[in-house]
Structure formats: C-alpha cells, structure tokens
C-alpha cells in the first residue's frame, strides 16, 4: 500500500500536536509495511498513491487545496480533522473579534472536506459529535485515537535528574507550546500562589506571552525535549498539567500518563473520553478547580491511568487501527 500524507508546510518548523500525530502515525504504518510519503505540494501528481491522508482542518487553507487536488485526480481521501470548535476560546475577554469572524468565514471550506472526504479519522467519539453538530453533513468515520511512543513504557527519572540537577525534587510539569490557548499563564499564577515549582517544556509561539508566564519566580523553562529525555522528564514530575482552553485530548497528557505521572487536564475537549475518572480535571475559568487539582495531585496514584494508557493508546496500536481504516477505504 502506498499512501501520501499531506499537511501544512510548516508542520516541522512550527511543531504542534498535529506534527507528533503525523510523524508517529507515519512511522507506525511504515513498521507495518505501508509505504508512506509526505508532501505539502497542493498540485502533486497523485497517480502513484492508493490514497491521500490529509491532516488538520483547523488550518484549513492548505488542507482545502490538498483536498481539491485529490478530488480532481479522483483519489480516495482519508481526513484526520483534529477539530474542536474554538468559539469559547475566541470569545474570551481581550481577544480580537476578527479572529472569530475569520474562523466562521472558513467554515464552508471545512464543511466541504468533512462531507466529501471518503473517510474521516477523528481522534475521539466526542470529536465526531462536535463535527456532526457544527456541519450539516458528515462522511463515514472511524475513530483513530492519539497515542504515545511505545519506548516510553518503563521511563525513569534518572536521565532528567542528571541533566537538570538544580531543579527541585518535586515539581509540576507542563509540556506544550507556550501559547495563550495552552493557558500556561494561569497555571503559573495558581502554582505560584500555592508555592509549587512549575517546569515548562515546548516551543515558544508568542514571545510576549512567554515573558509574562516566566515572570513568575516559581517557573523554570527548559526548552524543547524529545525522546528518552522527554520521557524521563515526565517520569520525574509529580504531576503533568495541561490546562488549555481545549484539547483533543492533549498528546503530552497521554505521554505523561504513560510514563507514570499524575495527569491534570482541562475538561474542555475530549480528554475525559481518554482518561475517564483516572485524571484530575480543571475548567479554564475556575481557579478553584486548578488549586484543588494541584493539591490533590500530590496524593493521587498515577498507576490506574498508566495501565489504561499502556493498554489502549500506544502508537503501534494506533498504526494498526489506521491501517485497518485504510483497508475499509480501499475496499
């Protein structure tokens, strides 16, 4: 089987959750014998490929061009929408009203991809429910969850402690791009009020926001970590907190849980479908919920969630589900 992945041109230069999903899904499929190619060319000759797999309709312009090209060449299309309505986030105080207007202006493009792709591959049942609510027609779908690297099983704090010996013994970790949607300023503020050390990992999307977040004396920023060192960082943390305005469900939450770390997650989006009652949840507008979750995390057991994630969400298993979905498209 020969598959073409198509995604925004800057998905490696400006990494986000879709970057991890694309790279990890591609590698898992290659391990299963699928020939996977990647291109951001909206005019590519698709004749060598059995199907085209398009990622992400949040940034819709590029995905729409890929879609039109695939339709023109009569190729079957698998679509990973990675979609959640950002209305509540875009309506919050201090946000430009233009952002919401631009989002709504692009909805007809998203509607066409959602209704005319051969098969949708949402990351959760909640995501497909949101798509069905926001668009009049939705194609057939197969839920393909996000995952964690199989190599993260058995992660140890040792490597991280050796690399960063000056960090406190107990700290809360947040691995995510530093941006308003990820809501680290709120996490830093409440952690500071509670006297908790906060360690941040991830690329900086907004320099001014980054400066505001790191102005708190309890915050340490270590840049972007990967592979074994990232797994070790999760393992060393007392808890991992992803207090975003919404997540689907948050790759770093899955990874942290797989490494045996207590997970504090936003309740907005699909995290509860993944983590059920084995994580601590916060609402981005409720300070009490975050204070409570941070305090409870120091006595919570990470083991039930870790075992659940190991059994359900490895990238190797996601690869098998994706390949099975491809077979239904081709059949």
From TrEMBL:
Keyword Magnesium: no
Keywords: Transferase
Biological process terms in GO annotation: lipopolysaccharide biosynthetic process
GO molecular function per UniProt: glycosyltransferase activity
Keyword Transferase recorded: yes
Domain of life: Bacteria
Residues of the Glycosyl transferase family domain: 165-279
Protein name (Swiss-Prot/TrEMBL): Glycosyltransferase, family 4
């Amino acid at each position: 089987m020969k598959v073409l992945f198509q995604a925004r041109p800057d998905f490696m230069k400006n990494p986000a959750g879709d970057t991890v999903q694309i790279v990890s899904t591609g590698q898992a499929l290659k391990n299963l014998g699928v020939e996977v190619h990647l291109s951001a060319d909206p005019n590519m000759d698709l004749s060598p490929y059995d199907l085209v797999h398009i990622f992400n309709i949040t940034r819709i312009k590029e995905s729409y061009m890929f879609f039109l090209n695939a339709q023109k060449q009569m190729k079957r299309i698998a679509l990973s929408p990675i979609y959640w309505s950002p209305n509540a986030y875009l309506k919050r105080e201090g946000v430009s009203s233009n952002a919401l207007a631009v989002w709504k202006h692009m909805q007809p493009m998203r509607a066409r991809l959602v209704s005319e792709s051969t098969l949708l591959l949402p990351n959760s049942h909640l995501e497909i429910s949101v798509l069905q609510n926001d668009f009049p027609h939705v194609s057939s779908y197969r839920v393909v969850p996000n995952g964690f690297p199989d190599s993260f099983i058995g992660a140890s704090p040792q490597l991280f402690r050796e690399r960063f010996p000056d960090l406190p013994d107990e700290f809360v970790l947040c691995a995510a791009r530093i941006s308003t949607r990820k809501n680290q300023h709120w996490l830093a503020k409440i952690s500071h009020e509670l006297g908790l050390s906060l360690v941040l990992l991830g690329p900086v999307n907004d320099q001014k926001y980054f400066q505001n977040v790191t102005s708190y004396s309890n915050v340490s920023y270590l840049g972007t970590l990967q592979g074994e060192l990232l797994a070790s960082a999760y393992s060393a943390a007392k808890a991992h907190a992803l207090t975003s305005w919404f997540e689907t469900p948050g790759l770093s939450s899955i990874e942290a849980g797989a490494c045996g770390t207590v997970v504090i997650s936003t309740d907005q989006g699909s995290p509860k479908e993944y983590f059920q009652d084995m994580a601590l949840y916060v609402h981005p507008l409720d300070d009490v919920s975050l204070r409570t979750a941070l305090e409870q995390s120091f006595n919570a057991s990470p083991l039930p969630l870790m075992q659940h994630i190991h059994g359900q969400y490895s990238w190797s298993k996601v690869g098998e589900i994706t390949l099975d979905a491809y077979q239904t498209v081709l059949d």
